[in-house]
Design a protein that fits this description.
mainly alpha, three-stranded antiparallel sheet
Length: 424
Amino acid sequence: MSVKNSKRKYRYRKPVNWTFLLVLITAFQVFCAGQILLNGGEKLVKETIYIVFGAYILVEWVYFLVFAGILRRKSFEVELIAFFLSGISLALTTSVYPDKAYTQLIAVFLGIGVFIVLLWILSDIDRVIKLRIPVAVASIAALVFTLIFAKEINGARNWIILGNGLLSIQTSELIKIAFIFVGAATLENLQSTKLLTKYIIFAVACIGILFLMRDFGTALIFFFTFVIIAFLRSGDIKTIFLICTGALMGGIGVLTFKPYVANRFASYRHVWEFADDKGYQQVRLLIYSVSGGLFGLGLGNGKLRYVYAATEDLAFGMVCEEFGMIIAFTVLLTFVALVVYSIRYSVAARSSFYAIAACAASALLLFQTALHVFGVTDLLPWTGVTLPFISRGGSSMMCCWGLVALIKAIDVKTYKRYDKIIKD
């Protein structure tokens, strides 16, 4: 698209009043900190709350002041969403596990670092194209290493444990960024089937290794992302239909010849029959989440927090119970907003790479959110995937911020030189 057309697209778009929204988000975070202080119980160390939330709000404001005041950026919709969701994650983690509050805060800061570095990498399309092969090779190598050396947790071999448990890394989360990066970069200039074939081989390798790890939820997310990228580049619905049909037949074959896989879905639509066994978490979620009403019971007053892995696998239920349905649906709408943002700005993207990467990243986040929400509420088989940004975990947090960078990069105002061109 020409600069003239890009200018026309942006002419009538009034920028979001990010200062007002940032003040609202900050007030919400201060309110969360106050609730934790009131309902924290004996385990709570008040200094932890002051330091964690104080540091987070400080970094939040410093980021906006630097990029808006010094670097003269004007578009901050994506960052506002990321900071809002990360703040909820920090509040839940601090409330349930005060001793892990600093760890989650560091994870958020690392995520912000990933966001900034990745935006710099994405600023040069030539650099992006050159990096696609090294990133692809490193991704496959990391997955193979994980398959060989990972510790099995909850039936899946997807965690690398270092330092006697002091540090754990879920490589498949970080490779979500690489999966989209490689796909969008490889298909940026699709002039032959050779490039598409290379990406198909890469995608099949990633998904196949994830199946060997028994990380079926992540494998499903990778497959969905592959379909989105393939469709965005080809627009051929028949081909996508054939791909999905083949994947469905493959899934049926796995369930038929690997009974232990089918056992993981035995409680689907029958959680009440397994209320004290396989359906324990989901039954408690269904009971407790609706008790929050519109405005929630308040941080620290919920019962779902006492269920195993509630801040990871049942994060949406905790949001419903302790924050209320209004905040819960606001969280869901933010992921829809990211998809709308990507589609809206794709028409003026500098390159097809940015359009493909942004749409695929936002679709991945929305699809993963749907798997989490529908899975824990038994509308779909439970895959155990996390709720983006909100579920506790460092690898997941860094992944989400990286995906948001792919979305942010689609807006030409993200980079100063293009912003100047549009103004002129």
